[in-house]
Design brief:
Blueprint (H helix, E strand, L loop, with lengths): L2 E3 L6 E3 L7 H20 L5 H8 L3 H9 L13 E2 L6 E2 L6 H17 L8 H13 L1
Antiparallel strand pairs: 1-2, 3-4
Helix pairs in contact: 1-2
The structure holds zinc ion (2 copies).
């Protein structure tokens, strides 16, 4: 038997594929049911309302949505916070601006790397010379 401390409640439990104890699994199922029920009756709810009304943490609701267990396709005001800045999203893990910032950060990082292959720098100069001579 493989015993571990449950990351959710801290109790010792027999390790399973979910990585949390059976009590917590039941809790999460109950939270899931509560969220689904509330959303079914309140399609216009946003994640804050859902969390307030069901006492389920936004973090947990976000997990349900990301896992695809809760569909937000029919709930136009539902979204979950961007991992980086907290802006509400309806898909992906990051908002547009964090994503483009990350992309440009990555580009900067790759620029800082010494260039291994140089793309024929002489070619460009020759072209300019030719235009000038025409
Ligand atoms: Zn637990
Ligand atoms: Zn963001």
């Amino acid at each position: 038997m493989n015993l571990a401390n449950c990351p959710r409640c801290g109790k010792l439990f027999v390790m399973n594929y979910k990585g949390i104890c059976t009590n917590c699994m039941k809790d999460i199922e109950a939270e899931y049911e509560a969220c689904v029920k509330y959303l079914r009756e309140n399609k216009g709810a946003n994640i804050q309302e859902l969390s307030d009304e069901t006492d389920v943490s936004i973090r947990q609701i976000t997990t349900f949505i990301r896992d695809g267990r809760i569909s937000i396709a029919n709930a136009p005001n539902m979204g979950y916070p961007c991992e980086v800045c907290g802006t509400m999203l309806r898909e992906g893990n990051m908002c547009e601006s964090c994503r483009s910032k990350l992309t440009s950060d990555l580009r900067e990082a790759s620029k800082a790397q010494p260039q291994v292959k140089k793309s024929n720098p002489g070619g460009a100069y020759k072209a300019v010379d030719r235009i000038r001579n025409d």
